[in-house]
Amino acid sequence: MQGLMQQSALTVDTILDHAKRWHGDREVVSRSVEGPIVRTTYATMHDRAKRVSNALLGLGVRPGDRVATLAWNTGRHMEAWYGIMGIGAVCHTLNPRLHPDQIAWIVRHAEDRIIFVDLTFVPILQEILAHCPSVEHVIVFTDSHHMTPFQIHGVPTLNWKGAHTYESLVEGSHADVAWGGFDENTACGLCYTSGTTGDPKGVLYSHRSNFLHTLVGLQRDVLGVSAMDTVLPVVPMFHANAWGIAFAAPGVGAKLVMPGAKMDGEYFHELLES
Fold this sequence. Notes:
The protein is an alpha/beta fold. Helices cover 33% and strands 18% of the residues. The mean pLDDT is 96.
C-alpha cells in the first residue's frame, strides 16, 4: 500500500514554479557583464527560463543531453539553469579558471552539445571549439547591441551550426512548455573537478540530490535563509552549484543580488550599500 500525499517528484523545476507562485515579485538583481545593474523578478525569471527551454528544444536538445554554461553569477545564468534542467537535460557548469586545454578536454569528455557563454569568456571558446567536436551551438549571454562576432580559431567541426544571441532566442521563443514529468533521479547537473590528481572527474547531480540539498541547506544550522533575507552569492555557480543558493533562494523567496564579473571588494561594497 502506498501513501497518497506528496506524490510529486523532487525535481528542481518545481522550485522556480514555487517561487513564481508565492514570491513572484521578489527581486533578482544582477550586475550585468555589459555593466548596468539589471533588476528582474522570480515571475519574470520563470517566464524567461521557460522560453530558454523552448529555444533549446528548437535546437534539438533532448533529455540527457549535456548543455554547458561558461558564465558568472547573473540572472541570465540562473534562467539558463532552470531552462536546461526543466526539460530533463543536464546543466554542465564549466570552470573558466581552468586552463583552456582542460576546458576543451572536459567539453569533449562530457560531449556538450550547446554552450551558454558570457561575453567575458567568448575568447576562450573561440580558441578551443575547433577541438570540441560535440558542440553544435554557442549562445552568448547578451543582446543584439552587444553581440560580438564569433570566430572559431581553426577549422570548425562538422557538427558546428553557429553562435546565437541569448536575448534574441528568449524573445523569439514562447513560454508554453512542460517542465518535469521525469524520474527525480534523472541527472540535472554536472561539475568537473580541477584535475589535481590526473584528468578532471565529472560529478553528476540528480534532481533529487539537489532538491534534498536545498531543503537541508535552508535549515537554521546551515544557511538558514528565509524570505526576509537578501543573499549575495560570491561562490561561483560553477563551483559546486554556488553552494545550492540558486535553488535555496527561490525556494524560500529570498532576494538575490548577483555580482556578475566584478568580483573585487570595491564592487561588492557598492552592491551592499546600494
